[in-house]
Specification:
This protein is α/β, with parallel strands linked by helices. The chain has helices at about 25-45, 65-70, 75-90, 105-120, 170-175, 175-190, 215-220, 220-235, 240-250, 265-270, 280-290, 290-305, 315-320, 350-355, 380-390, 405-420, 430-440, 495-510, and strands at about 15-20, 60, 135-140, 140-145, 155, 165-170, 195-200, 260, 370-375, 400-405, 445-450, 470-475, 490. It comes from Podospora pseudocomata.
Length: about 500
């Protein structure tokens, strides 16, 4: 038998592949994926090892070198060889920069490696397959180089007005699974059947707490402690397991819909740039794949992805991204409204602007006033919103909070409002609607913090009747176009002076 090729029926379930970032550790992802492809080859009696792009409708990663093999329609065997060759050229000593802490290597070698791969595959500069297959679409998560203070390697991407310098989105988005689900929803539609989401990591690494000690003897270790602190912050910023746990909770009631593979302590054994340890990492990964529980999970994946694979959970992409509200229960699924950090520094310009927009009035809460805090994840949008709410506390009888990260958390947040004000109801969906109706009827002024909003259409998720005051925070690209320019504030990283002040305050508090 020959390889089955790309299956392109529009009624087939959509299968998604998410790849964590991890430098040379990305080879671990490929070894795991290679095992899955080998099992499918044996199951379906294929002459050659199949390509991931023939089984996954969309593939996401956080780096060009990690994801381009998907766009280039390579087999895992070809990708592993290319990875070995590329790692040796990118992470060798000759390509290393001097006097750099975060940006250790020149971008030239990476750019040349990718260009050579594209040339070898004969797909042209735009990497377009002339057969225009429906499967194997690839997204690479990047962010504008000027959107975050970092020394990461910059690459020029895009064309025309979209052309610019970008860095990979490893900081804050090292596990792109959530963004992959959103992209798939936009690409294939909410009614398309959902198959499975396979998420593959590049090795776990425990985060150790660093405590700075005082005293004259310990000042000699200040540089070592500072390096440890920087490393701890970076580990938190590039954490992938938090996203995994969120997605696992979302799909836990639908067997076969989500699978996660990640070698325990793989990141601890091999650093991002230790390409000479690639054989060691491959061995660690193969040992991990030999475990009984992992083996069972691999078999489940193969059952779903194979030629005769079937998915019994019955989910659509819409259900996968917005879990069915009928299956929600009141729990601790959504975030509760917090208080601004005691270390809040700067941001006075945006706080003054918010004060002006939501100044006191005597109009019964009409017309509605809205303001959007927009920016990349982790930049401090929620902290600004909470600080603004604290400053405005005397102007509003009610201040509400909604976790807008997904439909289930929105419903849960409104259900909590219903519970707090004794509006009645026991079903979350009913309590959600009761809270919306009650808030819309209030004659007193109220303020709603709608945190992490990713809804392009907000009708049905905010109180009606055009009353009240709402501060949105969002990282959703495009939401800002729904607001007048003077009611949108792009939250950027702290100014250098404020960042240094915050760093020293935190340092002193830990002493």
């Amino acid at each position: 038998m020959s390889n089955m090729g790309s299956r392109t029926k529009d009624d087939e379930p959509v299968n998604l592949l998410s790849l964590d970032g991890g430098g040379v550790r990305g080879v671990s992802s490929l070894v795991i994926l290679d095992r899955i492809m080998e099992k499918i080859q044996r199951r379906d009696g294929l002459e050659e090892i199949p390509k991931p792009c023939d089984y996954f409708d969309m593939i996401a990663g956080t780096s060009l070198s990690q994801s381009c093999w998907g766009r280039l329609r390579m087999s895992t065997t070809e990708a592993l060889k290319a990875y070995d060759d590329c790692a040796a050229s990118i992470f060798n000593k000759k390509n290393r920069k001097t006097g750099q802490v975060s940006d250790k290597y020149k971008s030239t070698a990476l750019k040349e490696a990718v260009q050579n791969l594209v040339k070898e595959r004969g797909m042209g500069e735009m990497m377009r397959d002339p057969e225009n297959p429906k499967k194997g679409k690839v997204i690479v998560c990047v962010m504008p180089a000027d959107s975050v203070a970092t020394g990461e390697t910059k690459l020029e991407l895009g064309a025309g007005v979209r052309k610019g310098l970008f860095i990979d989105a490893a900081v804050g988005f090292n596990n792109p699974a959530n963004y992959l689900l959103k992209e798939a929803l936009d690409e294939f539609g909410s009614r398309r059947r959902f198959g499975c989401l396979i998420s593959i990591g590049t090795g776990t690494k425990s985060t150790e707490t660093v405590r700075v000690k005082t005293g004259f003897k310990n000042y000699t270790k200040a540089w070592e402690q500072l390096q440890g602190l920087i490393g701890m912050v970076k580990n938190v910023a590039t954490d992938t397991e938090t996203s995994h746990k969120q997605i696992h909770d979302r799909f836990s009631r639908f067997p076969g819909s989500y699978h996660r593979f990640n070698v325990p302590d793989g990141a601890k054994e091999v650093e991002l740039d230790e390409y000479k340890k690639i054989p060691q990492l491959k061995a660690l990964t193969r040992d991990y794949l030999g475990g009984d529980s992992v083996g069972r999970q691999i078999r489940e994946v193969v059952e779903g992805l194979g030629a005769r694979g079937r998915f019994k959970h019955g989910l659509t992409l819409g259900h996968a991204y917005f879990p069915d509200s009928d299956q929600l229960f009141l729990s601790d699924r959504s975030k509760a409204m917090g208080i601004p950090s005691s270390f809040f520094i700067g941001r006075q310009d945006v706080l003054n602007k918010i004060d002006q927009v939501f100044c006191e009035r005597d109009t019964g809460g009409v017309p509605r006033r809205e303001f959007l805090l927009w920016g990349i994840g982790g930049v401090g949008k929620s902290e600004v919103a909470l600080k603004a709410a604290e400053n405005l506390d005397g102007s509003f009888k009610y201040i509400f909070y909604v976790d807008g990260s997904e439909r289930s958390t929105i419903i849960h947040s409104y259900a909590e409002i219903s519970k707090r004000y004794n509006l009645g109801g026991t079903n979350p969906e009913t309590m959600f609607h009761m809270a919306l109706e009650w808030m819309g009827r209030l004659a007193d002024e109220w303020l709603l913090i709608f945190d992490d909003c990713n809804l392009s259409e907000r009708a049905g998720f905010i109180p009606g009747r055009g009353k009240g005051n709402i501060i949105y925070t969002s990282r959703f690209n495009g939401l800002e176009h729904n607001f007048p320019a003077h009611l949108v504030y792009h939250v950027e990283p702290l100014a250098e002076r404020d960042a240094v002040e915050l760093f020293w305050e935190l340092l002193v508090s830990w002493m």
